[in-house]
UniProtKB/TrEMBL annotation:
Protein name in the entry: MOSC domain-containing protein
Native source organism of the sequence: Rhizobium chutanense
Domain MOSC: 116-270
GO molecular function: catalytic activity; molybdenum ion binding; pyridoxal phosphate binding
Length: 285
């Protein structure tokens, strides 16, 4: 089995960028979720409440960050001053983040039709993952909770087969916003993987990913008038473990080293959990 796709999402909840290769460090893929949009009080905003974020792309460039949205002139955001900061919240975490300049925030607010702030996870920002799952002192950026999300092509194929059997269309992998996609024919093998190795780097699969309304949105337009994977996940992927309730797709992963990974790299299983992950068994009609 090999890596088939690599993605980063420089601006949390906005469009992803496909990469041929990626640098890995303790925070995950370099450049992933280093910026975020918040309300004026610093509470994070995602596509869950603002679907139009799917229309925004952030491109890091030398000396600036380039923001793009259809129908608007692009916005070049200068690097934030490290002494211009605010406390922001991401779920249960509070992070000291650098804030974009006032003009960039004004223009971005005009784009989105509400007052917002653009903030950055810079060298002074600190946040750690849940120690119960990832271990003590494991650093993360503005991700939902862990460094990396891994999905597999075989699992997407199985999900789409259930959707098709019920006349519900099909969905692409972009709906699940993975960082690393692994090409394998088998469905749901990741439930049994405790750790994998890619290019000499160990990646621990620490927690399955429970899914939300974002999977129902087109990742270019934000529209919810598209095929919906939630019914299929409800039929075949409902967690039976109270610690991670809801429908599951993909695994949260913590890297235990640094280096470079590339599309086409071999993925090797180095540790397994034979029991897999407990799922609810749906009643047959």
């Amino acid at each position: 089995m090999r890596i088939s796709d690599l993605f980063i999402y420089p601006l949390k909840s906005a469009r992803g960028i496909a990469l041929p290769a990626a640098e890995i460090d303790a925070h995950g893929l370099s450049g992933d979720r280093r910026a975020m949009i918040t309300d004026p009080e610093g509470h994070f905003i995602t596509q869950r409440e603002l679907p139009d974020l799917a229309r925004i792309a952030l491109r890091p460039e030398p000396g600036a960050f380039r923001l793009l949205i259809e129908g608007r002139p692009e916005l070049s955001v200068p690097p934030p001053r490290p002494d211009t900061r605010m406390d922001v919240t991401v779920w249960k975490s509070t992070v000291s983040a650098a804030v974009a300049d006032p003009d960039s925030n004004r223009r971005l607010s005009e784009w989105l039709g509400r007052e917002v702030r653009l903030v950055f996870f810079d060298g002074q920002a600190r946040r750690t993952a849940n120690a119960e799952w990832a271990g003590e002192g494991t650093p993360v950026t503005f991700t939902d909770g862990y460094q990396i999300l891994v999905t597999t092509t075989g699992s997407l194929k199985a999900l789409n087969a259930d959707l098709a059997a019920h006349g519900e269309g099909s969905v692409g992998m972009e709906r699940f916003r993975p960082n690393i996609v692994i090409d394998i024919d088998e469905a749901w093998p990741e439930d049994r993987w405790a750790a994998i190795e890619i290019s000499g780097i160990r990646f621990d699969l620490v927690k399955p990913c429970s899914r939300c309304i974002m999977t129902t949105q087109d990742q270019l337009t934000g529209s919810r008038e598209v095929a919906n994977p939630m019914p299929a996940m409800g039929r075949i992927r409902m967690s039976a473990d109270r610690r991670v309730p809801g429908p599951l797709f993909g695994w949260n992963v913590t890297p235990r080293g640094s280096g470079r990974i590339t599309i086409g790299d071999t993925v090797r299983i180095v540790e397994e959990r034979p029991e897999g992950w407990a799922l609810k068994v749906r009643a047959r009609a």
